[in-house]
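Lecture notes, unit on protein representations.

Consider one protein chain, 620 amino acids long.
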Amino acid sequence: MLDIALVGSPNSGKTTLFNWMTGSRYHTSNFPGTTVEYFSGNILGVYSQTDISITDTPGIYSLSPKSEEEKVTYDLLKSDREFKGLVFVLDISQVRRQLPLLENVMTLGYPIVLALTMNDIVDDDKRSKLEDVQLWKVLTGLDAVLINGRLGGGVKELIAKAEAVISSSPLHHEEHRSSRQQFVPQVDSLQTRFEQTFGQEGFIRKSLTKNRQRDAFLLHPLWGIASFSAIMGGLFYALFFLAAPFMDFIDGGFTSLAESVNAALPPGLLSEFLSQGMVASFGAVAVFVPQIFILFFLLTLLEDTGYLARVAAVFDRPLRKMGLNGRSVVSILSGYACAIPAMMSARTIPSTRERLTTIFMLPLMSCSARLPVFALLLGLLFWQKPAWMPAATLTLIYLLSLVFGILAAVVFSRLIPAGRKTTASAGFFALELPIYRRPRTAFALRRGLDKTKTFLLRAGPVIFVVSVIIWLLSTFPNFGAADAERFNTSFLASIGRYLEPLFLQMGVSWQVGVALVASFAAREVFVSSLVSVFALSQDEDNLSSLIGFLSEQTLPNGTPVFTIASIISLILFFMISLQCFSTVAVAQRETKSWTFALSQFSVFTIAGYLIAVAAYKLLT
């Protein structure tokens, strides 16, 4: 087997190339620091019949590691793993800055093939010369292949070239490690030869001019934050406005399915289990799938433009005052999708104090699993109101989650023992701002579909198990009685009434409380559990009538279950509490401390409950 590694600077296109080579769909984005661990895969058969393993390494700036991701690559190249050769991914729009790394890598003694990327953003008058692979052969002594990362062009040629170079070049990097000095003159002349061939002018002057004009506004301390708020507000408005017809369609489909099940089966436990348990529960979550898709689609478009890297730069100064810096923003932005990869991306933070603080605050970012819950609660809060009202409130929720996170970071950072405060220069932050690029719609669509699929695959099994449990508990032991009597004398009712004093402090009934308890299996289960607990038959025409049904539910004393105060208390509880055991497990893995992970879970869950209770008391 040929074992090959992809090496290069951050944001040079390594992971995109890896995905083309292996058919994988690992996360790529238009800002550095996305890849924090290495991935391995096999080359697709359409490119080569040879058994080839390819490894995507985190981006590095030199072979002197200064961050966690650089150390991963350095250790991999220096380990006992015998790579037969390297593919050096060279961003030709940033070639001057990446030549020193190429010089370093050449001293390792591996056979190397150059993959030339990012030619589409090079100035027209420079492009033809930079795309001349024969010229690169003369300059570096290495074979080069031009890659089109957007369309996959050049991938097959690159693999064939790598096979040929590796098979004809004996691997002798151990010898080179012991006698590197003989290669220094050859490598050091690379920069000089490049300057003589291409001159000293930049290759992306036109793009840089446009960049500076946009950055003057988007990186402004005031207008940059205002722009971010406006962009996020528009994104959340789209979630409600664009998704509405698709949500109505899905809800109507599940309504018809429930009716078909009832018509096809004789009355009894089986038909009730399928229609009121399974179909109703899955339908209650499925109606929010369009919002999940639109969220990831639009975020991917923003990511692909290069804008999100600017967000990190804009928030560096205010975060610095809180004991963090802009590097934490990369993790925070990831946290709005899911806390798990966000915690993993915190490995790039060199300061132990800042890394632990970032990991601690990340569960407070409003992840995608919270979106169906917020959509339902805001639908109840703004029943039959214009779409801009829930959109504006959702924007406020996301901004407040950042505020809560920063407050938690301030408190936590002051609790870290003095001996663990830093292992690097705390407060130092440098980030390469990528060129603004036109977003790839097809790529964003594919990413949105992938994320939506992941959401459904993750939520589906949990919803199934919880729905079965809730249906069984709400049906037995008195399963032969009428619906209302059976439900009120069920095991579920007994459990709910036992816990009701806790839930009433938040202003919600025991039925809602049972759904809250179920949500600790997964946040999105709250929606399906509400449907099961309130025994919705899904006979409403669309989502709005379903929300209307919930808005009509009352407590025994006639008070509505969902009031302004109780809805706000529920929103605050879901904003703060840590209802994700996968996140707890990852926090333990990243910090190597169960004390940290369990304390994080306990603090946020208890704080969420207490703040929800306080909010309800104040509002009533």
